[in-house]
Amino acid sequence: MSLTHDATPSPSAGRRFRAYTAKHLDELTARAGLGEAERLAVRAVAAVLPFRVNSYVIEELIDWDAAPDDPIYRLVFPQADMLPQTDVARIADLLRAGAPAGEVNRAANEIRARLNPHPAGQMDLNVPTIDRRDPLEGMQHKYHETVLFFPKQGQTCHAYCTYCFRWAQFVGDADLKFASGEVDHLVAYLKEHPEVTSVLLTGGDPMIMGEAVLSRYVEPLLGVDTLESIRIGTKSLAYWPQRFTTDPDADDTLRLFERVVDSGKNLAFMAHFSHPREMAPELVQRAVRRIRATGAVIRTQAPLIRTINDDAATWETMWRTHVRHGMVPYYMFVERDTGPQDYFAVPLARAYEIYRGAYNRVSGLARTVRGPSMSATPGKVCIDGVAEIAGEKVFVCHFIQARDPELVGRPFFARYDEKAAWLFDLEPALGAERFPWEQAPPEDAALLDAAHP
């Protein structure tokens, strides 16, 4: 791998990272042309849901002439109508009156509790244990082959997406956060569970960590013989590509990636791109080239989000651009049932049409992508199509992944519902009384029922 820097850096390439938080919202939303009442409503939403953006996104990605309708602006800035009007008015009244921070936060916590902060039963169903006794913090083991690990220094991001399903990680409530600094616990668990062949480092964003800290989590995994792949889930390529080009430890980070590949393990860089504009800067393309030169494979994924990327042309452009730059389109997700889902969700029927409209206009190299996929309590469910069977219009579905491995790849049918936006909005079809996952293993049945009453 060549670690020499390309010429002609981006205007922001050499600048140090600068974060903007809620205290900057009034100034930034004024730049977008919002009036005083609108700005107060946005601040009220930001008291409930997290807000963070950085100088690169502000300077390089947002078209301020198009704001507040610009898709990248909407990607990172709270919207006044993301929460119920009564909730926004309640918080806005407190802010207007100069209420103490504790009072505002108590009201915000009441609202957060109604937003399903931990979807898919992650607090109850997916927490692994050592010797079936002691729960392991900051880890999830939902699928047979894969363990998720949340390094505690990686539980923030370079910027926050307004639709993030892990928003609860970022609101300052320790009871809502997954995190662990105990990589030795992870290694011990992997050795006790040789069926686990893949570890996903997630967050937050692991790439917020410097190389020295990231290495402390990655290096011990290289000695686990049964581990075949290490994945890093990250939005850093879109939100701070300097991490791989001009940051002081950029070269050291890429050498770490090389060590993973040289150890005989696959390094899967799970890059989150929500809109084609995130790939436009040459700085991003240079970062992609440098990562690929280490032997890492970059796979791309994002949810389908109303008002940001909810049309087939956007996804077609995004997938074709990723293939052009040597990345592998991997997932189109459905917005999860948490946070402001009602604001961002696209009905499943429309999601499928958007997916199909993009899929049939790209080459086979981009048809590695799967979707629209729902990461729900029983597993990852893909909408494969709409069909008429025995006179009944149905969604054709299958499990890409499942808590019960016997369900993986198994097709099933749901009644067609043009308004349904999530798995639990659906009803069984063709005379079935239950869905396949509702035949849960005995030890899981009560928990699954509780997770989606």
Radius of gyration, in angstroms, nearest whole number: 22 Å
- The tally of beta strands, per DSSP, is 15
Q: How large a portion of the residues is in β-strands, by DSSP E? A: 15-25%
Number of domains: 2
Helical residue percent? 25-40%
CATH architecture of the largest domain: Alpha-Beta Barrel
CATH level 3 topology of the largest domain = TIM Barrel
Structural summary, described in words:
By secondary structure, the chain is of the alpha/beta class. The chain folds into 2 domains: 19-114, no CATH class; 129-370, TIM Barrel. It contains 15 helices and 15 strands. The chain has an 11-stranded mixed beta sheet. It is globular and about 55 Å long. The relative contact order is 0.10.
SSE layout and pairings?
Elements: E1 19-20, H1 25-31, H2 36-48, E2 53-54, H3 55-61, H4 71-76, H5 85-96, H6 101-113, E3 129-130, E4 134-135, E5 139-143, E6 146-149, H7 183-192, E7 198-201, H8 211-218, E8 229-234, H9 236-239, H10 250-262, E9 266-272, H11 282-292, E10 297-304, H12 312-324, E11 328-334, H13 341-344, H14 348-359, E12 370-376, E13 379-389, E14 392-402, E15 411-415, H15 442-451
Parallel strand pairs: 6-7, 7-8, 8-9, 9-10, 10-11, 11-12
Antiparallel strand pairs: 1-2, 3-4, 5-6, 12-13, 13-14, 14-15
